[in-house]
Amino acid sequence: METLNKKNESGELNIETATKNFKLYIRKIWNASITKYFLAALIILISGLFLYLIHLHIGYQSVSLVFLFIISLLPLLNFKPGPIFLAAVMSALVWNFFFIPPYYTFRIGKVEDTMMFLMYFVIATVSGLLISRIHTQRSLINQRERRTSALYNLTRDLSSSKSLDEVTACALEHLKSTFHAEVVFIYADNDKSLKHMAHPSSTISIDDAERNIAQIALLSSEKVGKFTHNVSSISPFTYFPLYTKSRKYGVAGLLFPEGYTMDSEVESLLDTFIVLITAAVEREYLTELAKNNLMIAESEKLYKTLFDSISHELKTPITTIIGAISSLKDERINGNRNIILQLIDEAGIASERLKRLVENLLDITRLERGNLKLKKEWHSISDLLNSSISRVETENRKSKINCDVNDDLGMLYFDYPLLEQAIINILHNSIEYTSPECQIDVAAKRKSDSIIITISDNGNGFPEHEIKNLFTKFYRIPGTKAGGTGLGLSIAKGFIEAHGGSIKAQNRPGGGAEFIILLPINL
Amino acid sequence: MTAQNKIVVIDDESQIRKILSITLGAEGFKVIEASKGKEGIVSVANNHPQIVILDLGLPDEDGLTVLKEIRTWSNVPIIILSVRNSEDDIVKALDLGADDYVTKPFNTAELIARIRANIRRTQQPDNQSVIVNGDLKIDISKRLVYKNNEELKVTSTEYMLFYLFFRNIDKVLTHNFLLKEIWGPVHTEDSQYLRVFIGQIRKKIEDDPAHPQYIITDSGVGYRMKLLSN
Fold first, then answer.
1. Do A319 and B104 touch (CB under 8 A)?
2. Using CA of residue B176, residue B179, residue B183, residue B189, what is the dihedral sign?
3. Which of A127, A122, A120, A19 is nearest to A81 (CA)?
4. B35 and A481 in contact by Cβ < 8 A?
5. Under a CB-based contact definition with an 8 Å cutoff, are residues A340 and A369 in contact?
6. ipTM score of the complex?
7. Strands B172-174 vs B222-225: parallel, antiparallel or unpaired
8. CATH number of the domain at B130-225, please?
9. Which top CATH class is A372-520?
10. Contact B16 A320 (CB under 8 A)
11. A268-315 pLDDT, tens per residue?
12. Is the CB of residue A168 less than 8 Å from the CB of residue A158?
């Protein structure tokens, strides 16, 4: 018994749902505004009146054809099945009452008239309903096609966007044009909080209260606002969270125009839009992340190279000095005057090297800060070159520098210590990277309104493809011998350019390297 | 000058080579300089030096590569000289077969002491059955350790540690090396074992375990048994 009851219950339940569905269907079909029913009735009455006037000429049978014609036109004028059915029934009755003899009764005299009446009724109803259905489906297809092409366009434009800003602008444009809504995008700083400012491309701005509602959408990962189940009455906006399993990216807020109706088709299209946009945003976010990681790795590598190079440069002379001094304590060594002198010499050279390194680091810092103040005075060019050469020669007695400078080059207005340092750095470079027997030449001449200083050697010259890097800070040609930070030439360039001059490096046609410095006379 | 006291110095910095030449020369060594890795390898092969001083940062090849190359055919003591005082590089070099290390800037007296200690070790016969260091003595044939001629009670692991230290007096033994020798290759990460056992043997042999005289810690690298006069 119990099982039977249950069966009955479930059966009733099924019947209940079926009835419900049917009722829904019926409601959908007949769901048309009252005006349409009136209009349909009015059309039948007016055409009935008109036909009554002329029916004596055309005969009462043709009247049914005209009615049929009118009913088949109704779907094209956007009449729903309900009014069409009403029109069919009314026209049949009108035809019967006014036109089929005997007149002014619903009674039909002849058998063929009865047949015609019944056939008319069926044809009018069926054709009206069929045409209306075709019409509805066509408009449905049109609608779908519009949606498909909207999605297609969105996908195409999103995939061709190259940055987060472009993706945002593209998303905004498509949302606005497809849904006729004003759109605001607010990205998130992290999973919990939105940025304070909406994205600048947004078509509308929102206040703090609205931003807080958007924040709810971000936190709950659910749609919030109008047309949703969450706080729908508070906000005129609908907020869509942009999130994936891995991260929350932000919120898109849409303000639909007054009286906008949201049906399930629009809603699902909108959801698809949001999914596509989120995917594009995520793509840009990940690209950005990968780029940043690469940059950090690069800068760490640069930092390590720099640190290694400078610590090597600092420790080598210090090692020499400590080594020399600690050796002097050794009894076997401090008895030998010759060795003592050698050690002192080495310590001296190392100290010079250390001094030069520290000066270079200070110089590059001055250049970097950009607050290099020139203390210009009048000095002679030949003085500058000769004193630079003699300073280099005291530090490196092994090398010979040949100087061919005319005394009548005259005076120039410049910062003496800075240009001297520049020349010394270049000379050091030439000495360091040539063998001791190489010849270094310094020459200067006047050409129109500038002085040209040439420092050349007959060594191996530079590898052609490295010339462009020679003056780059901290750059050293790979495979060159130990010692040096890659600062000297970039400092020289900085000091010369501070005087409005220029420097370039090239290989001499006959072999060897050549630096050409150009200083304008009216410095 | 005999072949007995040749030293090959492989360093790319001419200044360092020069200062080593002068000081080691005054100590009676003949210094052969090499500025590049390849040159250094050739020089070691040709000169059969008593000791090699090798810089880790070389322009053409990494010092570690040079070290590996020399170790394939020679047991000459190699002292690593490097500006990198990062422990990782030193440990790597020691595990690859370097005998000792000195970080720049160094004191010449210290370097010379290391050179002498390493030469002395290579000259000691391998098959000594009794080794004495300060108040300590190990009898390898009997597997016994003595302090002031009194037998110490040691476990087999502690004995292994003593054995390794006595066999390598004045040489730094890396954590890796000790762990591998005693517990086998799977335990090379468990340096806390080692710390426990070192603590135990220090308690047995040191007069003041907090200020050890025999087993010295080279921080981040390993342990070294210091040579004390008898």
1. yes
2. negative
3. A127
4. yes
5. no
6. 0.73
7. antiparallel
8. 1.10.10.10
9. alpha beta
10. yes
11. 889 999 999 999 999 999 998 999 999 888 888 878 777 777 777 888
12. no
Task: Give Cα separations from A417 to A420, A421, A430, A446, B151 (angstroms).
Answer: 5, 6, 20, 22, 75
Please tell me the distance from the alpha carbon of residue B112 to that of residue A46, in angstroms, as a whole number: 126
Q: Structural domain boundaries of chain A?
A: 32-138, 162-287, 372-520
**CATH 3.40.50.970 applies to domain B3-123:** no
In this structure, what are the phi and psi dihedrals at residue A231, rounded to the nearest 5 degrees? Answer: 35, 45
pTM over 0.80: no
Q: How far apart are CA B201 and CA A495, in angstroms?
A: 64
Cβ–Cβ of B26/A317 closer than 8 Å? no
DSSP letter string over B19-67?
Answer: HHHHHHHHTTPEEEEESSHHHHHHHHHHH--SEEEEES--SSS-HHHHH
**CATH number at A162-287:** 3.30.450.40
Partner A contacted by B61 (CB < 8 A): no
CB nearest A330 (choices: B15, B104, B108): B108
Strand partners, B53: B9, B79
Number of CB atoms found within 10 A of residue A328's CB: 16
Is the distance from CB of B56 to CB of B84 less than 8 angstroms?
yes
Mutate which of B107, B108, B110, B115 to test chain A, going by most A C-beta atoms within 10 A? Answer: B108
CB half-sphere exposure, A371, CA atoms < 13 A: 3
B16 touches chain A (CB under 8 A): yes
For every one of its 230 residues, what pLDDT tens digit does chain B have, with 9 covering 90 and above? 444 589 999 988 888 898 899 989 888 899 999 988 889 999 999 999 999 999 887 766 788 899 999 999 998 999 998 765 567 888 888 999 899 988 888 888 888 888 988 888 888 777 778 888 888 999 989 899 999 989 989 899 899 999 999 988 888 899 888 888 888 877 777 778 888 899 999 998 988 888 899 999 887 788 999 888 76
Which of A319, A321, A354, A481 to probe the B interface (max B CBs under 10 A)? A319
Burial A403-421 (b: 16+ CB within 10 A, else e): eebeeebeebebbbebbbb
What are the residues facing B34 on neighbouring strands? B10
CB contact under 8 A, A319 and B109: no
With contact defined as beta carbons under 8 Å apart, do A248 and A218 qualify? Answer: yes
Query: B174 to chain A, minimum CA–CA distance in Å?
Result: 25
The answer to whether B62 faces chain A, any CB pair under 8 Å, is no
User: Residues A389, A403: contact at Cβ < 8 Å?
Assistant: yes
Contact of A329 with chain B, judged by CB distance below 8 Å, is answered with: yes
Any A CB within 8 A of B18 CB: yes
Cβ-defined contacts of B95-99 (< 8 Å, 24+) = B95/B174, B95/B176, B95/B177, B96/B64, B96/B67, B96/B68, B96/B71, B97/B67, B97/B68, B97/B71, B98/B54, B98/B67, B99/B171
**Chain A interface test: which of B13, B55, B102 (most A C-beta within 10 Å):** B13
Q: Do residues A40 and A87 make contact, with C-beta atoms less than 8 angstroms apart?
A: yes
User: Which pair of tokens denotes residue B70?
Assistant: 């020399």
pLDDT in tens, A487-512: 888 889 988 988 889 999 999 888 88
**How far is the C-alpha of B113 from the C-alpha of B10, rounded, in Å?**
19
Query: Are B83 and A316 a contacting pair at CB < 8 A?
Result: yes
Q: Which two tokens stand for residue A435?
A: 């063998």
Residue ranges of the domains in chain B? 3-123, 130-225
- The Cα–Cα gap between A374 and A412 comes to 14
Torsion on CA atoms A183, A186, A187, A192, rounded to nearest 10: -130
Query: Cβ contacts (< 8 Å) between A318 and chain B: which residues?
Result: 104-105
C-alpha A478/C-alpha A309 separation (Å) is 13
